[in-house]
Amino acid sequence: MTPEEMETRIVRYGDLKPCRTAFIDAHTPGSDQKENFTIIGGGVSESPDQHVHIKETPGFNIGAAGQPPKCRNSLHSHTTAEVFYVLKGRWRFFWGRWGKAGEMVLEEGDIFNIPTGIFRGFENIGTDYGMIMAILGGDDAGGGVTWAPQVIEDAADHGLVLGENGVLYDTKKGQSLPADVNPMPLLSEEELKAFPEPGNDAVVRDYVARYWDMMALAAGNPCKVIGENALLKDKPGFEVEFLTRGSIPDTAYKLNCHEILMVMRGHWKLSWTGGEKVLAPGDTCAVPPELEHRLEPSMSGEASLFRVMNTADPAGPTWIG
């Protein structure tokens, strides 16, 4: 593989192209400054304006959300995995039918494997623009998003209508539902009863890993974050590991699966027969299966990254203990 070919498999943080009309709450006050990024795969965007950086999916999708302070993402549910880690800023995650069943605050480097089948939302509670990186289960993550009824109603009041076909129509731009497309129906009260309302204890215990705990656990070997025998014992169709300068392989290695490198801190040198590249914080690199390569920090100081690998496990759902 040439350096030029590898570069096409790297999405640089500085090259990310945002979409500001990705979701139904794009006009709703409090949510109308969100930026959505689709890095690998189509993600869950409802907008044709969304730019996809790498279209080939490795069995899961990679995306990101960028938001200024006090901006929030509205309550929605997924049938497959939705995993976030905080790249920049301080974020509050909340869940439940009205977003009041539980909440937690995540700092930079913390990771949250949000249980499937619950309504969830999040907001930037920091003082600067914040960024969270996302791993979404399955090749077609867009098929498993359900919005809380009040989100659809609020969006309609501000000019956005979601069709049953999963496409947004912006009445402020003169758009309307096609004659053969009905509006997305609201969930009934009976249907809403099927959505769990777990409290903080169960969710924090089983679905959250803190950055400095992972740093300590990865001092000698990669820290298994999501997967079998991992900190968060889930099997959502992918595994997540956390690596530091003390836990990277000593020699060149290759895997028989897709390997997505997502840099959290520091600069990392990726080398292989034919070239090398340096990855910076926020960069995402899709290393192809069977490519022998080596990974090492390119300078002194704190260095950490998340490594995501596809598995044969189904994409979801997860369980709530």
Automatic annotation (TrEMBL):
Q: Which Gene3D superfamilies match?
A: Jelly Rolls
Tell me which residues make up the Cupin type-2 domain. 69-132
Pfam families in the record: Cupin_2
Database matches in InterPro entries: Cupin_2, GPI/OXD, RmlC-like_jellyroll, RmlC_Cupin_sf
**What keywords appear on the UniProt entry?**
Metal-binding
**PANTHER family xref list:** CUPIN TYPE-2 DOMAIN-CONTAINING PROTEIN, OXALATE-BINDING PROTEIN
This chain belongs to which protein, by name? Cupin domain-containing protein
Ranked from the top, the taxonomy reads: Bacteria, Pseudomonadati, Pseudomonadota, Alphaproteobacteria, Hyphomicrobiales
